[in-house]
Design brief:
By secondary structure, the protein is mostly helical. The protein has a domain at 28-83. The chain has helices spanning 31-35, 41-48, 54-62, 65-68, 88-94.
Protein backbone atom coordinates (compact mmCIF):
# COMPACT_ATOMS: atom_id res chain seq x y z
CA UNK A 1 0.00 0.00 0.00
CA UNK A 2 2.74 2.45 0.95
CA UNK A 3 4.66 1.67 -2.25
CA UNK A 4 1.68 2.93 -4.26
CA UNK A 5 1.44 6.30 -2.49
CA UNK A 6 2.55 9.48 -4.25
CA UNK A 7 6.22 10.26 -3.54
CA UNK A 8 5.27 13.30 -1.44
CA UNK A 9 3.34 11.13 1.04
CA UNK A 10 5.42 9.54 3.77
CA UNK A 11 4.35 6.90 6.28
CA UNK A 12 6.19 6.51 9.56
CA UNK A 13 5.90 3.78 12.13
CA UNK A 14 6.55 4.15 15.82
CA UNK A 15 6.91 0.61 17.10
CA UNK A 16 6.54 0.38 20.86
CA UNK A 17 5.73 -3.24 21.49
CA UNK A 18 5.96 -5.58 24.43
CA UNK A 19 5.02 -9.09 23.37
CA UNK A 20 2.32 -10.70 25.46
CA UNK A 21 1.44 -7.62 27.47
CA UNK A 22 -2.01 -6.51 28.49
CA UNK A 23 -3.13 -3.11 27.23
CA UNK A 24 -2.82 -2.01 30.87
CA UNK A 25 0.93 -1.61 30.25
CA UNK A 26 0.04 1.46 28.17
CA UNK A 27 -2.28 3.00 30.77
CA UNK A 28 -0.49 6.22 31.68
CA UNK A 29 -2.01 6.39 35.17
CA UNK A 30 -2.07 2.75 36.22
CA UNK A 31 0.65 0.90 34.33
CA UNK A 32 2.73 0.42 37.49
CA UNK A 33 -0.11 -1.62 39.02
CA UNK A 34 0.02 -3.96 36.02
CA UNK A 35 3.81 -4.12 36.15
CA UNK A 36 3.79 -4.98 39.85
CA UNK A 37 1.26 -7.78 39.25
CA UNK A 38 4.12 -10.06 38.28
CA UNK A 39 5.26 -9.76 34.67
CA UNK A 40 7.57 -12.38 33.25
CA UNK A 41 11.23 -11.36 33.38
CA UNK A 42 11.50 -11.26 29.56
CA UNK A 43 8.52 -8.89 29.46
CA UNK A 44 10.15 -6.66 32.07
CA UNK A 45 13.34 -6.61 30.02
CA UNK A 46 11.42 -5.41 26.95
CA UNK A 47 9.52 -2.82 29.00
CA UNK A 48 12.77 -1.54 30.45
CA UNK A 49 14.06 -1.02 26.91
CA UNK A 50 11.46 1.76 26.68
CA UNK A 51 12.90 3.62 29.67
CA UNK A 52 10.60 1.55 31.91
CA UNK A 53 7.42 3.17 30.59
CA UNK A 54 6.28 2.20 27.08
CA UNK A 55 3.38 4.69 27.10
CA UNK A 56 5.61 7.65 27.96
CA UNK A 57 8.17 6.50 25.40
CA UNK A 58 5.49 6.38 22.71
CA UNK A 59 4.17 9.84 23.61
CA UNK A 60 7.66 11.34 23.75
CA UNK A 61 8.45 10.07 20.24
CA UNK A 62 5.08 11.21 18.90
CA UNK A 63 5.77 14.71 20.24
CA UNK A 64 8.65 14.90 17.78
CA UNK A 65 6.13 14.73 14.93
CA UNK A 66 5.89 18.48 14.28
CA UNK A 67 9.68 18.59 13.84
CA UNK A 68 9.94 15.55 11.58
CA UNK A 69 6.62 14.76 9.91
CA UNK A 70 2.98 15.73 9.67
CA UNK A 71 0.92 13.47 11.92
CA UNK A 72 -2.39 12.67 10.26
CA UNK A 73 -3.52 9.66 12.28
CA UNK A 74 -2.52 6.51 14.05
CA UNK A 75 -3.19 2.80 14.16
CA UNK A 76 -3.08 0.52 17.18
CA UNK A 77 -2.38 -3.18 17.05
CA UNK A 78 -2.39 -4.62 20.53
CA UNK A 79 -2.37 -8.35 19.85
CA UNK A 80 -4.25 -11.11 21.55
CA UNK A 81 -3.80 -10.62 25.28
CA UNK A 82 -7.14 -8.88 25.88
CA UNK A 83 -9.23 -11.21 23.69
CA UNK A 84 -12.82 -11.20 24.93
CA UNK A 85 -12.29 -8.27 27.31
CA UNK A 86 -15.50 -6.27 26.98
CA UNK A 87 -13.82 -3.23 28.56
CA UNK A 88 -11.04 -3.20 25.91
CA UNK A 89 -12.65 -0.49 23.72
CA UNK A 90 -12.85 1.83 26.72
CA UNK A 91 -9.25 1.05 27.62
CA UNK A 92 -8.15 1.95 24.08
CA UNK A 93 -10.13 5.17 24.23
CA UNK A 94 -8.32 5.99 27.46
CA UNK A 95 -5.01 5.79 25.64
Amino acid sequence: MVANLPSNIKVGVINVSVAGCDIALYDKNNYQTYVSSGLASWMLDIKNGYDGNPYKYLVDIAKLAPERWCHQGHTLHQGETNTGDETWPAKVKGL
